[in-house]
Amino acid sequence: MTAFPAETETGSAAGKGREATLVALLRLVSPIFRAHWLRLAIGFFALMTVDFLQLIIPRFVKSAVDGLAVGTATSARLLELSLAVMAVALVVATLRFVWRYLIIGFSRILEKKLRDRIFDHVLRMDQPFFEQWTIGDLMAHASNDLATIQMACGMGLVAAVDALVMSSAALGFMLAISVKLTLVALLPMPVLIVCTRILSGRLHHRFNLVQEQFALLTEFARATLVSVRLIKAYTLERFQEARFRALGEAYVRSNLKVAAIQGLLFPIATLVGNIGMLLLLYYGGGLVIDGKITIGSFVAFVSYLSMLIWPMMAVGWVANLAQRGITSLRRVHRLLMEQPVVGIGPTRPLPQTARSVYACRGLTFTYPAGIRPALAGLDLEIGPGLVGMTGRTGSGKSTLCKLLLRMYPVADGMLFFRGLDVNRLDQAELRDCIAYVGQEPVVFADTVAANIGFGRVDATMAEIEAAARAAAIDADIQGFAGGYQAIIGERGVKLSGGQRQRLALARALLCDRPLLIIDDALSAIDVETEQQVLRGLLSRLGGKSVLLISHRVNVLRHADRIVILDQGRIVDQGQHETLLANPFYRTMAEKQQHHA
Q: pLDDT tens-digit profile of 377-411?
């Protein structure tokens, strides 16, 4: 069931090579931090101001308690202290909004910029990349991984700074009250440090497994939904449900392992803080009884230790967010370090005129996972006019189309466009000269007009309709409810196979590019419509070059030259009448004439 991958390893390229260093990971996000340094500076200033204002409140409480204890407190003094606490609380509330808006807002900006970069990067990649990375894995990078990075660079960063400032300031105030009492309250701290270090190391591996499981689950769901009609036709609903359920259970198990570590970090931090509070009550209470510190100092010390418990708990939370963020950032870094293998050398301007558009000189190509060459020593010129091509299944026809479209790399001196080696040309400029209609036409869940105009965003409605007439689909479109504004459904589910092919052909004709490649894209069209399509195609030829791959003799006979491929080599070529002497071509013609 290769159509629905579930147990395959995701992102095989991602597992190769050494993991990036922390410095390399930081270089990935540091430009975004630098671009928004003022926003972050104001945000963290507001955060630290909030922390210091919170530390002042216990001083007010200490003053009030000491005044009450010795009998010097007055109503006016207590009102003054209460108003001071209220004023501080209002400023704290305002500044909390400020730092949340600025810092958490920055984390969303960072998430967007990374997502944009991933999207742009993936669009630049070539076919070998998509053979190594599944759609599910790419979706996991652009969703789960980015959400984790956003959390680490948002609340994680806030919690880290907040805990550092709060703990440092609280410790300072605690030491000012009593050094011995501070040391006693902090006795359990080494336990938290050791536990955090051990558990954080395990968290990295387990969270990486969670992300891989999510990628598998996403890819399986995508493949299933895309192939839902096939699944129903073979009554495989229960089979797919069982496989999806198994993937979901594996994902849950991986998440539970992560949750087990998270579930240990928080209780350990809380336990350490409460043990410190217990020691404080026992030892500090004795100091108050002995008169070594005032009751107000003791109450203030308890308040500061309470403030210190949050940083203790934050250590585990921050460690968790940091490990998850680093793991996801490392996965994103591996993705962004992938580079296209097509057209990476120096480029030169595209020539405007030449005798032939494309020329193959001893073109030999083997797929990355292939054993024998898919093309072997191919010599071919595709100049102005219509070149037909046929051959047995697996003879290399579609492979040639992929190479002409620069989907795979070729060696120097094998493929030339307008007289120049394609490896010396800008790939975007070269592709701008080619229109392509594949065996499986790509149709979007949009209007008919938007699908035809996809290759030319500036096309007028009149041009779209003219292209549709040339592709013999205008009459079909007029029969749709809404005509050219009809929504044709996900992957063209509302269209027949022949309608999808003609719509894709209309899109290619609208682009009006020097070279048109049609890779067996008329196979689902009846004979009468096929002839209409050919007449429309020939009427728009006008000095352009067309490579038409087909197994239909009625289509091929209109070509200026027909090329027959077998096992990656040209075994014969000529016009229709000449090739009738070729056993393969003659047999194909006789069978089709008999069935007609």
A: 899 999 888 999 998 888 989 999 999 988 888 88
Residue 589 C-alpha from the chain's centroid: 48
The H or E element that residue 81 is part of is helix 75-99
CB atoms under 10 Å from CB of 325, counted, come to 23
Of 440, 442, 470, 472, the C-alpha closest to 454 is 442
Residue 141 has pLDDT above 80, yes or no: yes
Structure tokens at 87: 């004023």
Q: Could you tell me the two tokens for 547? A: 């490579």
Domains of the chain: 12-337 (1.20.1560.10), 358-595 (3.40.50.300)
Q: What is the spatial distance between Cα 381 and Cα 163, in angstroms, rounded to a whole number? A: 70
Global confidence as pTM: 0.72
| Alpha helix (H) residue ranges in 227-294 | 228-233, 237-289
Provide the sign of the torsion angle of the four alpha carbons 570, 572, 577, 581, taken in this order: negative
Of 142, 570, 139, 197, whose CA–CA distance to 390 is shortest?
570
Q: What H or E segment, with its residue span, contains residue 49?
A: helix 37-70
Asked if residue 8 has pLDDT above 50, the reply is no
* Cβ–Cβ < 8 Å for 155, 104: yes
Q: What is the pLDDT of residues 107-127, one digit of tens each?
A: 999 999 999 999 999 888 888
**pLDDT 10s digits, 424-462:** 888 888 888 889 988 888 888 788 888 888 888 888 899
Q: How far apart are CA 377 and CA 260, in angstroms?
A: 60
